[in-house]
Amino acid sequence: MTRVVKKPDVRKNEILDAAQDFFFRKGYESTTIQDILDKLSIAKGTFYYYFKSKDELLDALVEKTTDQMMSQFATIMDSEQNAIKKFNSLIRAGAAFKRTNIALFSVFLKVLYRDENILMRTRMFRRIVKKTAPLYGHIIRQGVSERLFHTLDPDEMAEMIIRLGQHLNEKICELILDTTRTPEQLCTIMERKTRLYERVVERILGAPRESIEVFIADDFRAMVQYLSDRVRGATNQEEA
């Protein structure tokens, strides 16, 4: 068989795409490196040239997905919206991206929030802070100049808000992974937590009350239902 030589970026993305496909269909734990080698007809050495392990492969997939999500934000940042609308739009765009790629995020949810993967989760969060903090800082400075926000040190406030949002995300993920609650119960708890997040962010920014609104009930319920079903399905398979 003739050996096919491809550019490094092309080959690396092929491996990532194949891994993503297997993670969807078989789950992260059930997917083997050999599955990917067989699908792409590549040697083991080719795989290890790009990735040292399956965990590193997942980490690269998270980074690729984060970069794709960031590209969605450019239109918002370039828009003529005021700072409050930009802030709300930015968070909603992130949620919409997760909803569009919900199958992939269900894989991330089940893998990243295991205790043994805390370092991987920490790396992912640091990457998100590094990429998104400048965007939030820019919006906060705009809001201060428009007299919509009344706060000090936009860059510090941006990082604080992102960390607060990450704390909220972790609580939501913990709830979804808790199979003792129904999707309806999860939605009620999550809505309360998200509304609290909105009010706290308003105080941090010195923004008008009820101006920060990132919770969209119908979209949220649909996403929770899907993720909850996937988690319960995986749990039932493991128990069987």
UniProtKB/TrEMBL annotation:
The UniProt entry, under InterPro entries, shows: DNA-bd_HTH_TetR-type_CS, Homeodomain-like_sf, HTH-type_Tx_Regulator, HTH_TetR, TetR/AcrR_C
The Swiss-Prot or TrEMBL record marks DNA binding at 32-51
Q: Which Pfam families match?
A: TetR_C_39, TetR_N
Would I find Nucleus among this entry's keywords? Answer: no
Q: Give a yes or no for keyword Cytoplasm in this entry.
A: no
Swiss-Prot/TrEMBL keywords: DNA-binding
- List residues of the HTH tetR-type domain: 9-69
Q: What is this protein called?
A: HTH tetR-type domain-containing protein
Q: Specify the species.
A: candidate division WOR_3 bacterium SM23_60
